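If you are new to this repository, start here. Below is one unmodified record pulled from the training split, so you can see the exact layout before writing a loader.
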Amino acid sequence: MAYDGAIRYVDDGNTLQAGAEIATVEARHAAYLNLINRDSPFPDAFDDGKPPSEIFKAASGFIVSCPRAVVALFERLP
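And here is the target side for that same chain:
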């Protein structure tokens, strides 16, 4: 969901390529976790993207520290 929601903000081809490669690995991880939890590995045909601000809010309890530049980036995004 994080990659789907953030892709619109990436305008560098190399970064876009890296994100696409990571997203496919993450998809396999999610499918495997669903399978071992006895859920459907592919519950939906499409995934909804989440805006970066929502992902950051959900992850904030796990973040111990974050470079100021990254925080500033998230503050600029909707």
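Two things worth knowing about this chain: The chain has a mean pLDDT of 86. The chain has one domain: 2-76.
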